[in-house]
Amino acid sequence: MLARTWRGVTKAEDADAYLTYLHQTGLTHYRRTPGNLAAYCLRKVADGRAEFLLVTLWESMDAVKRFAGDTPERAIFFPEDDRYLIDRDLHVTHYEVPFAEGQAFEPQRVRFDDFRVAGPAGDLRLVDTGGGGKALPVVFVHGLAGNASHWQAQLEHLARQGRRGIALELRGHGGSTYPEPEDFTLESLTGDIAAVVRALGLRRFVLAGHSISGGVALAYAGENPRQVAGLFLVDPMTDSRRYPEEQVTAYLASLDAPDVAQAVRQDWAQMAGERSDVRERLLADLDATPLSAVVAVQRSSLRFDLAAALARYPGPKFSLVAPDNDAPHSLHRLGEGVAHQVVEGAGHWIQLDHPDAVNAALDAFLTKSAPA
């Protein structure tokens, strides 16, 4: 085993932007190279400077050459490095590694680093597994009061296959910024997807959405059909416009009631399914999400025209649903219909309840719609 080290320096105010840039360039290329075992980024900010030390581990010098070419002692740079770096090593140093221990060397685990990009309403946190080669990446969007970790089983599954997976956290969720002024319409949330796609330079990808973000993903796909190679939906939102108007009016009124927080928790516990560990996790995630965000998204979803959004996207679509979501107002029953599969015994968060079933369905969809 070999270690490859390199040092670079930016201005202190550029430290976060350069870290984001490293994720998009060098760290992604490391992951894509056969024989790369691990990558570490060490950072020290002091006296107006940010020093970065990159340490990567490799199976052999042949593996290093797959990344660096026939002159592996030369440092590799990318187009925007000149924008950030005020000092840099032009050459790298290689070390023999007599031993290495610890979980850091398990390549199939996805690390939930604090990786952020600028969104239309504040910073957005995301997870990017990197890698992928020529296979189309998959972009995952969590449901209401969720976060990127809801897709961990799918991200790790794709990473084992060498396909890139990206999970973003919508505004006001997880580690993403709460928008000021407040704006949580489903149409606005598509801007969060657009910002991540633009920041990562994605030209074409498969888009996956859960719950209300099934509608968000559908709206984005309708606006960008050439970018979205396919839509993979997990228990997506239903068409509220098909409910009686008095029922919708009553629900809107309940969102302004003093006991709305308690009512929302009861809904979450009921939808979570039979697994107590999943239920406890989801309630904790709900508690960590501002109630104002939860209420605002729910309010917008009641007026969202799901059928019209569905009609605007002509590409491949698949919906994986829980038994309670197999009804006339379900997304897969709208318009000309959408191919779907019911997962028996699943709660609303199927990717947490039955991750293997979701992975198998995702594999089948990718094989048909976005083959590697």
UniProtKB/TrEMBL annotation:
Start and end residues of each AB hydrolase-1 domain: 138-361
Keyword line: Hydrolase
UniProt xrefs under InterPro entries: AB_hydrolase_1 (IPR000073), AB_hydrolase_fold (IPR029058), AB_hydrolase_sf (IPR050266), Dimeric_a/b-barrel (IPR011008)
The protein, known as: AB hydrolase-1 domain-containing protein
PANTHER family: AB HYDROLASE SUPERFAMILY PROTEIN YCLE, MONOACYLGLYCEROL LIPASE
Record organism: Corallococcus caeni
Signal peptide: none
